[in-house]
Design goal:
Strand order of the largest sheet of chain A: 1-2
Number of strands of chain A: 2
Distance between the termini of chain B: 37 Å
Strand order of the largest sheet of chain B: 6-7-8-3-9-10
Structural class of chain B: alpha/beta
Number of helices of chain B: 11
Shape of chain A: elongated
Oligomer: heterodimer
Structural class of chain A: mainly alpha
Strand content of chain B: 25-35%
């Protein structure tokens, strides 16, 4: 029978243990295959760096005197962070749904907030691991300034949380792997590639500059880059407001979907 | 909370999937300490009902309670008191058996549960596989891990949704011994199974479902006596004569159904009529009623 001695003293303690366990399980899930989930994306980003810097390094400078390769690195770091945060939460959820083992987190008394926080934070952590990997390896070849670390940290965490949240929505919504791949290939990838990872939007025609301002990924990349160079295409405060607003809206939508049991609880 | 609060209370529960009425107003109470059977053909609504109880499916109407806790408004307490062994053989391929059970404990807010985990593993004969990855386990072992996962938080109510489907005889026997012991320890056990002889042997009370409704609900003994008839199997020299008296030919034998409440008088009458008709009775045996017969009769009438 139920033995009260083995149960935590309070609901709060029990909720925290539930959160910590789910978070730890999600971290273990990607860390057990870190060659695929961390090392491969780092290599991917470095290949981008190698190719683009080889082609453009001697021809382009940005923000006046910033070499192109140095300009490129923060964009690649952030792109890797965002894509991997999205990939982690979305792939974990869809795998669990398709194999059926999602039942093991739906049967226990885990609240929507605990469920959301654990999946998002684990995804942010994977994004950060990949980002730090790209940063460390690129530091061997490129001298990268770090003008305002707090902005790097703020945009790294907030951008990662935004994409991880988006990944939770995609993972809940998608019923097949190809639906998730469509999310990744037709939404995340184009928005990332057209966000200014590889260029300053000041180099674009006026119309494309305006269009870029409708892309939230642009604000994430630009704000993150501001932390390194102290210069950016647009005000870091505006970027922070846009990214923060998008995060709050998506987080609210996700919590609403979870509380309704959308596609999770029949 | 009064001790009389039932382990499970289900009232007017409905659930519809598109045009399909999966549950059409189910009412059911299961007392604490019962070993209860939930039977029905595929698609009867058993798994939907269990899923609604476990919070995996949201009922369209009605209420469901576990140990007096509403599964929606007081889901925390309700889920803490319920352990579910799912029908599907699902597992997380990333982890070992022990990791899985530690995670499951943590989800229920329990930290440092290794002593109990070891005890469950030992009782389910899984201790030697504790550090083995789930992927490499046989189907029977995976099934036992599912049982262990349902028990990590020591729930007073345990629901087993067809736990012996595809399981070999030896494991099935071992599993039932374990579940019977849990029931003897005071756990309420709810079982769905297609093996009716298991339900007959284990369950004190049984509900039968068809098309989302409960069509029979009684003690196993009452169901057996009310719905099934004993059969009299008679070996005769003239099958055609016996058949003309209402018997059903089966090989060399003719089978007559009779009401068990009518006792020996009915048997004597039947045998006398066979003798008078010249059927030439050579052998007689009486078949006992079984749950399969009850099940078929209930489903036919419903």
């Amino acid at each position: 029978m139920l033995d009260p001695d083995t149960l935590p003293d309070s609901f709060r303690a029990s909720t925290f243990i539930g959160f910590r366990t789910l978070f730890y399980k999600e971290v273990q899930r990607f860390w057990k295959v870190n060659f695929q989930t961390v090392a491969a994306p780092v290599l991917n980003a470095l290949l981008f760096l190698l190719i683009f810097s080889h082609v453009l390094a001697r021809r382009v400078t940005v923000y006046g005197d910033v070499p192109y390769t140095a300009f490129l690195v923060p964009g690649l770091i952030m792109m890797s962070l965002l894509q991997n945060a999205f990939a982690n939460s979305s792939s974990s959820l869809i795998q669990s749904k398709i194999t059926g083992n999602i039942i093991f987190v739906l049967l226990p008394p885990l609240s929507c907030r605990v469920f959301y926080a654990a999946y998002v934070l684990a995804a942010v952590l994977r994004g950060l691991f990949v980002a730090i990997g790209v940063w460390l390896v690129s530091a061997f070849f490129i001298d990268l300034p770090l003008a305002k670390p707090a902005w790097v940290f703020a945009f790294g965490i907030l951008g990662g949380a935004l994409l991880a949240t988006f990944g939770v929505i995609a993972g809940i919504w998608a019923e097949k792997f190809d639906q998730l791949a469509a999310f990744q290939n037709f939404l995340i990838m184009p928005l990332t590639m057209l966000s200014g990872v590889f260029y300053s939007i000041h180099s674009l025609p006026a119309l494309w500059q305006k269009i870029s301002h409708a892309n939230p990924f642009f604000f994430m990349i630009d704000g993150f880059r501001y932390g390194f160079f102290g210069q950016s295409d647009t005000s870091p405060w505006l970027s922070l407001a846009v990214v923060g607003f998008c995060f709050v809206v998506l987080a609210a939508v996700t919590l609403m979907l979870l509380s309704r049991g959308y596609k999770l609880r029949g | 909370m009064p001790f009389s609060t039932p382990a499970i209370r289900i009232a007017a529960v409905t659930k519809r999937y598109g045009n399909l009425q999966a549950l059409g107003g189910v009412d059911l109470e299961i007392a604490r300490g019962e070993f209860f059977g939930l039977l029905g053909p595929n698609g009867a609504g058993k798994t939907t009902l269990i899923s609604a109880l476990a919070g995996l499916v949201r009922a369209d109407g009605g209420t469901l309670e576990v140990m007096g806790h509403d599964v929606v408004t007081d889901f925390y307490s309700a889920r803490l008191k319920l352990g579910v062994v799912p029908q599907e053989l699902v597992f997380d391929p990333f982890f070992t058996v022990r990791e899985i059970l530690r995670f499951q404990s943590g989800y229920y807010g329990i930290y440092g549960n290794d002593d109990w985990i070891d005890e469950i593993l030992s009782r389910l004969d899984l201790l030697s596989r504790a550090d083995t990855n789930m992927r490499t386990l046989s189907g029977g072992m995976k099934r036992r891990v599912l049982v262990a996962q349902a028990l990590v938080h020591r729930p007073p109510v345990i629901v087993l949704d067809e736990p012996t489907a595809g399981v070999d005889v030896e494991l099935r026997q071992g599993l039932w011994q374990f579940v019977k012991q849990l029931n003897a320890d005071g756990h309420t056990v709810v079982l769905t199974t297609h093996y009716l002889e298991e339900a007959e042997a284990l369950c004190g009370r049984i509900a039968m479902m068809k098309a989302g409704r409960i069509v029979a609900l009684d003690t196993t003994a009452n169901l057996l006596s009310h719905f099934s008839s004993r059969s009299l199997r008679v070996q005769v020299e003239r099958l055609d004569v016996a058949e003309s008296l209402g018997g059903e030919v089966s090989g060399d034998w003719v089978i007559f159904g009779f009401d068990p409440t009518s006792g020996a008088e009915m048997l004597e009458t039947l045998l006398a009529r066979l003798r008078e008709a010249g059927a030439g009775v050579r052998g007689v045996s009486v078949g006992e009623p079984d749950l399969e017969q009850v099940f078929m009769e209930v489903m036919r009438r419903a």
